[in-house]
Amino acid sequence: MDKKAIIFSAPSGAGKSTIVNHIIPLFPELEFSVSATSRAPRGQETDGREYYFFSEEEFRRKIAADEFVEYEEVYPGSFYGTLKAELQRIWDKGHVVVFDVDVKGGMNMKRIFGERAFSVFIQPPSVEELRNRLIHRATDSAEAIEKRVAKAAEEMAYADRFDHIIVNKDLGKALKEAETIVKEFIGK
Ligand code: ADP
Ligand code: 5GP
Description:
Elements: E1 5-9, H1 16-23, E2 30-32, E3 35-37, E4 51-53, H2 56-64, E5 68-75, E6 78-83, H3 84-92, E7 96-101, H4 103-113, E8 117-123, H5 127-137, H6 142-155, E9 164-167, H7 171-186
Parallel strand pairs: 1-7, 1-8, 2-7, 3-4, 8-9
Antiparallel strand pairs: 3-6, 5-6
Helix pairs in contact: 5-6
Bound molecules: adenosine-5'-diphosphate and guanosine-5'-monophosphate.
């Protein structure tokens, strides 16, 4: 089977995790790529499930050892990246890998994988709505929320570099749209 990838990118708070978590159980061939990060676990997050959690020092060691397909310092002092070993593990099973990465990471991934990848940008209805969702989600400090919102405004400009844009206003509609494009890409 081909080595395929679906890339979901969005400004933080646009609904990417909600959409990815809905899609994965619907298609047995999909497998979520667990990224590595140097940020601390949030809430109920578990090592190896949402992320592989590393100290910044360990993360930098892995960068030096060329263990990443792609990595970014998404926020100052917070590194995120996809380990080559994680990608290999998923493709070895013949699964289609699903990435949840920031906007820059998504564009890099698309450049790396070309036609084997389908890139999707999840767009919030507005930056104001994004801030409301982050406040409502209640997982980040006020300061972290403002950092994410400032970054979001920049990231929105890259939406049209992606293969597909889903505007996540009505969640039910966005989930259906995601199902349709995934089905089409994996050929069902
Ligand atoms: P991301 O993974 O992009 O950071 P999340 O999936 O965590 O975003 O969504 C951010 C917050 O917004 C969550 O609390 C989620 O339940 C909520 N949310 C997601 N989609 C919608 C929507 N269409 N309308 C209102 N709230 C939403
Ligand atoms: P969070 O801290 O909210 O879990 O994630 C912050 C941002 O980092 C999100 O936009 C998420 O998609 C992104 N991210 C997660 N894993 C990776 C990765 O492996 N590479 C890149 N470039 N970004 C990632």
